[in-house]
């Protein structure tokens, strides 16, 4: 069928409408394209289609510089110019606030700023994850294809900092050899590489059990210049694997990056911002908007290893930080110690249950995709802090939570700043500032 493509959905697909007005999610299209597409799914309310050929290309259509763009699922928006990507991201945030948060259309347009793109659109990542699959006796290490099931071999990744773009090939060669010669299997292989510190870490995610530690360390060490090799052991059914231990196989056993003035050291399973330059902009936006004062008490919920905790601690009297993941709490405490920062209470536990018993002046929250639990919004709403910075990587849960804040009545949304931390993908980070009414 012939379709005119209107806009991007929050995902890999674009949106068009068929001749009867039914929404069609189109894979492989760019807004402004006219395409010939084949129907892949049809239901009463919507259908899905895949582009067969582009009849009239959109002015925003570009050729991806990545030779794997057609087979790898890592960069679903790479056929769109970066400018069009950031426009589509802002439009997606506006749409979520209106549709999910029930914000008034005019107010939403005023609240949501232009989407910033602080980093280069390629070569911005400090981390990639390689998938592992077996086809008969053969091991395949590479990237997930667009179907998120098939694993495709790749020799480099244009998203990884340029200096490290060949690292995936070297690591996957070594891991393939280990899998074939020692019968090893892996859940996945994580690579973290920092241009600023020069540190590179490989994390092998495996099931517990016998493991040829010395050989693995030697073969990976021969293949690439690594500052750390670790094994992360997981147990349980595939979708709900639990981390049961981390073993250092060679080098430091952790990895360091510099964000602004702060050196951050993190263990392999801990969350860390994947776009270093982008993370610096997030910190700037949070610090500028909260305006910490010398005698302020600050709160940092979902603190991770301390991306916001350290800069806030340097500019205020005291920070209460809460993080639920044990290794990340240990990372945070080590980062504070490394930086000789003593005015932080780093609490391990759930943000709602361990909600600090303090009346903070400024607050930052940076929850995972699921957003804030309802009781956390309720507890935050009882605070008298002058401002809350809500850092979010999911526009839908952000919109839901902002509506809850405004309903509670004590905070009102002042601005929403989308930041393109993940060019070539549909993901977008947002820094929202809420002000005490
Ligand atoms: C998006 S990350 C942000 C981390 C940190 N702010 C940063 O920028 O590096 C979210 C963090 O929340 C933590 N987390 C998840 N659920 C939590 C909960 N219920 N209570 C406290 N922390 C939680 C995760 O372990 C993770 O470190």
Written overview of the protein:
With 437 residues, the chain is α/β, with parallel strands linked by helices. It folds into 3 domains: 1-61, Nucleic acid-binding proteins (OB fold (Dihydrolipoamide Acetyltransferase, E2P), Beta Barrel), CATH 2.40.50.140; 127-257, OB fold (Dihydrolipoamide Acetyltransferase, E2P); 265-436, Vaccinia Virus protein VP39 (Rossmann fold, 3-Layer(aba) Sandwich), CATH 3.40.50.150. The protein contains 9 helices and 21 strands. The strands form 4 sheets. The chain has a 7-stranded mixed β-sheet. A hairpin with a 3-residue loop joins β4 (34-42) and β5. α1 (82-99) packs parallel to α9, α3 (167-182) packs antiparallel against α4 (213-223) and α8 (374-381) packs across α9. The radius of gyration is 23 Å and the shape is globular. The protein starts with a strand and ends with a strand. The mean pLDDT is 95. The protein binds S-adenosylmethionine.
């Amino acid at each position: 069928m012939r379709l005119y493509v209107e806009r991007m959905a929050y995902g890999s697909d674009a949106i068009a409408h068929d001749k009867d007005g039914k929404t069609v999610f189109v894979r492989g299209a760019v807004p402004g394209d006219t395409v010939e597409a084949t129907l892949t799914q049809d239901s009463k309310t919507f259908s899905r289609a895949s582009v067969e050929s582009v009849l009239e290309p959109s002015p925003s259509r570009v050729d991806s510089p990545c030779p794997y763009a057609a087979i790898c699922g890592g960069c679903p928006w790479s056929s769109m110019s970066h400018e069009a990507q950031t426009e589509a991201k802002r439009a997606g945030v506006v749409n979520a606030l209106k549709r999910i948060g029930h914000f008034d259309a005019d107010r939403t347009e005023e609240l949501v700023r232009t989407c910033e793109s602080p980093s280069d659109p390629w070569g911005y990542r400090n981390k990639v994850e390689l998938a592992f699959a077996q086809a008969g006796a053969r091991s395949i290490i590479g990237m997930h294809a667009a179907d998120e099931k098939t694993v495709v071999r790749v020799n480099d990744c244009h998203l990884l900092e340029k200096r490290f773009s060949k690292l995936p090939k070297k690591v996957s060669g070594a891991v393939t050899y280990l899998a074939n010669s020692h019968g090893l299997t892996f859940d996945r292989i994580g690579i973290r590489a920092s241009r600023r510190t020069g540190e590179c870490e490989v994390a092998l995610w495996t099931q517990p059990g016998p493991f040829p530690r010395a050989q693995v360390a030697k073969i990976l060490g021969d293949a690439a210049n690594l500052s750390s090799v670790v094994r992360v052991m997981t147990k349980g059914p595939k979708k709900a694997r639990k981390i049961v231990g981390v073993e250092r196989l060679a080098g430091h056993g952790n990895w360091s990056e510099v964000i602004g003035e702060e050196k951050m050291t993190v263990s392999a399973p801990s969350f860390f911002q994947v776009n270093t330059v982008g993370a610096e902009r997030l910190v700037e936006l949070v610090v500028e908007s909260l305006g910490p004062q010398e005698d302020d008490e600050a709160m940092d919920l979902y603190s991770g290893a301390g991306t916001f905790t350290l800069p806030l601690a340097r500019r205020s009297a005291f920070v209460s930080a809460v993080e639920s993941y044990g290794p990340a709490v240990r990372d945070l405490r080590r980062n504070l110690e490394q930086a000789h920062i003593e005015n932080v209470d780093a609490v391990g536990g759930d943000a709602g249950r361990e909600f600090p018993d303090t009346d903070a002046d400024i607050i930052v929250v940076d929850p995972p995709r699921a957003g804030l639990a309802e009781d956390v919004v309720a507890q935050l709403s009882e605070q008298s802090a002058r401002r809350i910075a809500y850092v979010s990587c999911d526009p839908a849960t952000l919109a839901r939570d902002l509506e809850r804040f405004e309903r509670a009545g004590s905070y009102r949304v002042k601005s929403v700043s989308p930041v393109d931390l993940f060019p070539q993908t549909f993901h977008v980070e947002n820094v929202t500032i809420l002000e005490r009414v």
